[in-house]
Amino acid sequence: MRKRVLIGLLVAVIIVGVVFGGVFAFQRKLIYLPTGGPLPAAAEILPGGRDVTLTTSDGLSLASWYFPADNAKAAVLVAPGNAGNRSFRAPLARALNARGLSVLLLDYRGYGGNPGDPSEEGLASDVRAARDFLLREARIPLVYFGESLGSAVVTELATEHPPSALVLRSPFVDLASVGQRLYPFLPARWLLRDEFPTRDNVARVKAPVTVVYGSADSTVPAEQSREVANAAGATAIEVPGADHNDLAFSDGPELVDAIVRGT
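Predicted structure:
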């Protein structure tokens, strides 16, 4: 009997080890959900749009879209969330361009047909390449806008290179906090290789911060976004009834107005 119990425990330990090992090895496949190409030309999205290539510090060439506005008062660096590609953010680019803002829609490594594999370190390099492009091209004040995961990416950038304004949409406290909510049966904080500590970083940002979030967000709880806002001493804008991927966060007036006010 004792031998059978020991064998049973050993089998259970092996199964748990295999499960946790698999999650650790393939976790980035669960975090980053890119959609590839082919994509239309930027000019097909918006007249005057340009297909541009961003060069990262580790030598990757990232296809992105740039939409300059006549007499623009600011340029918006759009850092997307963890899913899709830049075409999903085209409505936001149109809305901001119509309000007189130039817009760069970044696609990270591994997204939109770009080379490379996404990681926290890699996305940090990608967003710096986007900023470098805008500094050369636009020569006007920069606003960083981050969507969900992109909020963590631009917040980290802002700690080193403060923008004129930082606008965060549905930011989370850190990646482990979201992982624990989505996968409560896993010790996310122990397993995750990428941290994205938005709350800790935003407290160090020396720029005006605005946080926009949905009251009914089922992916990033509203209380997490409020924690980020509190850490930054930010203006917080709650969109009543909005879930994480609702149209309100595509080109809705609350979001667009928040970005425009940041200029």
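Summary: Residues 1-30 form one domain.
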